[in-house]
Amino acid sequence: MNNYRDIIVRPIITEKTMKMMESDNKVTFEVAKGTNKTEVRQAVEAIFGVKVVSVNILNTKPKAKRVGKYTGTTKVVRKAIVKIAEGQDINLFGE
């Protein structure tokens, strides 16, 4: 990966990730397939200017979904849960 913006695809904003942001100072991102923890750490530190304590990566499996008679699956996502150092934060909402 030659660009940090290619590694971090988008932040994942759900009720669960918002609770993790408030209580544990962890932020969840969708990352590109094939990236490792070191690349994610460097990308987050370079883009947001914060100190990363730890990175956990997980791959979500597709779930079967159905709309009427049509069946399909959700997309496969690689997530990175990044723990930020105490006293620092990432502003995802532009406030």
Short description:
The protein is an alpha+beta fold and 95 residues long.
SSE arrangement:
Elements: H1 4-7, E1 8-11, H2 15-24, E2 26-31, H3 37-48, E3 52-60, E4 64-67, E5 70-73, E6 77-84
Antiparallel strand pairs: 1-2, 2-6, 3-6, 4-5
By CATH, the architecture is named 2-Layer Sandwich
Based on secondary structure, the structural category is alpha+beta
The top-level CATH class is Alpha Beta
Count the DSSP helices. 3
Q: Could you say which overall geometry the principal axes of the C-alpha atoms support?
A: globular
Report the uncertain regions: none
Look at the structure and name the CATH superfamily. RRM (RNA recognition motif) domain
* Main β sheet profile: 4 strands, antiparallel
- What amount of the residues lies in strands? 35-45%
CATH topology: Alpha-Beta Plaits
Helicity, as a percent range: 25-40%
Mean pLDDT, all residues? 93
Major sheet: order of its strands? 1-2-6-3
Secondary structure: number of strands: 6
Cα separation of the termini: 30 Å
Counted up, domains total 1
N-to-C series of helices and strands: HEHEHEEEE
Instruction: Report Rg.
Output: 15 Å
Report on this model:
It is a single chain. The longest helix has 12 residues. The protein has 3 helices and 6 strands. It is of the alpha+beta class and 95 residues long. The protein has a single domain, classed as 2-Layer Sandwich (Alpha-Beta Plaits), CATH 3.30.70. β4 and β5 form a beta hairpin. The strands form 2 sheets. It has a 4-stranded antiparallel beta sheet with strand order 1-2-6-3. It has a two-stranded antiparallel ribbon with strand order 4-5. The termini are far apart. The model has no long low-confidence stretch (mean pLDDT 93).
